[in-house]
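Tokens as discussed.
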């Protein structure tokens, strides 16, 4: 793994650094010899996620809500703060919108003050329930502006708008990534996302909850691959702003995911069918040609391998 000398060492701010993705990004940057400041409200993140590097002298934690301004001296900003699971972002939808919109403004103001690069963790949800398949970055999406998912989808869309406006108006160097469903160790076991739900249910031999008929599709990316994509984009020596899709283009139905999880855990769980949540997208698959061309990035860890690693983690959470 590359280790940087003093001159190449960067001080990096990660908002949402105590969450699932943020803690992996923090760990990777610390392992490469950089300094990391993690600003997190601990709404869905936990200090447990920081356990393996909490005592690293290059790491600092600040309990902070991104809806308030923040002043720190850093070389780069990764803006990840936002609950990602539907049950968490729908818990207080007004705060979810504020987190995306005010959080983006506060972090962009900081980037402007510091004249530094800033990466925004956007989402495939900006495509909504897509009518174009697979989704390319030039697709504008099919999003309900007033549904239960809108606080997240429209908040993230507005954050993208703000990033582009700050780029055009203030010359801020932005990096916009649209993340497709990502999974792995340190997902919160109770956050309601499909991979964590299915694995916990299977390990406990409890019924696996399929919403709808399980024919809707998702494309699942293992966390380690995604984080490599983030860092490649941030380190890219060009004015590329994105948006760039990052995700694994291999698409599965939710039923296929359930079958894989049951097999890999040797579970006795049965399937139960529950109502499909409102506005649940029917299909989702990234077109990652742009990531391949501009970053030389593509996922290397496929579903069975990634699920096995994730199952080993969740076994420690029983
Ligand atoms: P997560 O819920 O595990 O992490 C989010 C982190 O942000 C948590 O630590 C939480 O405490 C923190 N946070 C939430 N609101 C905050 C606020 N107002 N101020 C400060 N901190 C706040 O979710 P994740 O999966 O790690 O997602 C990280 C980012 O990536 C999010 O922006 C999410 O929208 C985006 N994303 C994730 C996925 C995925 O599949 N994991 C997909 C698309 C987009
Ligand atoms: N899902 C499911 N059972 C669960 C949790 C989720 O069938 O216990 C479905 C959900 O309806 C959706 C897919 O799995 O179609 C992915 O859901 P998740 O909340 O993980 O992510 P998102 O909908 O944001 O892609």
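Sequence:
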């Amino acid at each position: 793994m590359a280790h940087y000398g003093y001159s190449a060492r960067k001080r990096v701010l990660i908002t949402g650094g105590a969450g699932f993705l943020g803690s992996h990004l923090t760990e990777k940057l610390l392992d490469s010899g950089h300094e990391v400041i993690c600003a997190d409200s601990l709404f869905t993140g936990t200090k447990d996620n920081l356990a393996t590097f909490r005592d690293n002298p290059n790491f600092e934690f600040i309990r902070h809500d991104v809806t308030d301004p923040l002043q720190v001296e850093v070389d780069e900003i990764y803006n990840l703060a936002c609950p990602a699971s539907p049950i968490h972002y729908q818990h207080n939808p007004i705060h979810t919108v504020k987190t995306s919109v005010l959080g983006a403004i506060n972090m962009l103001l900081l980037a402007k003050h510091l004249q530094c690069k800033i990466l925004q963790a956007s989402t495939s949800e900006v495509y909504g329930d897509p009518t174009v398949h697979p989704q390319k970055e030039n697709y504008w999406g099919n999003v309900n502006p007033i549904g239960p998912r809108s606080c997240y989808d429209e908040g993230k869309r507005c954050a993208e708008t703000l990033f582009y406006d700050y780029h055009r108006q203030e010359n801020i160097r932005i990096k916009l990534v649209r993340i497709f469903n990502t999974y792995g160790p340190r997902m919160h076991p109770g956050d309601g996302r499909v991979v964590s739900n299915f694995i916990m249910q299977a390990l406990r031999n409890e019924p696996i909850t399929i919403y709808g008929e399980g024919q809707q599709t998702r494309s699942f990316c293992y966390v380690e691959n995604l984080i490599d994509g983030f860092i490649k984009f941030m380190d890219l020596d060009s004015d590329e702003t994105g948006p760039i899709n990052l995700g694994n283009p291999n698409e599965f139905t939710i039923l296929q995911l359930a079958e894989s999880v049951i097999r890999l855990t040797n579970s006795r769980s049965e399937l139960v069918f529950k109502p499909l949540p409102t506005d649940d997208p029917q299909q989702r698959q990234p077109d990652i040609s742009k990531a391949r061309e501009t970053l030389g990035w593509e996922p290397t860890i496929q579903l069975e391998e990634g699920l096995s690693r994730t199952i080993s983690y969740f076994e420690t959470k029983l």
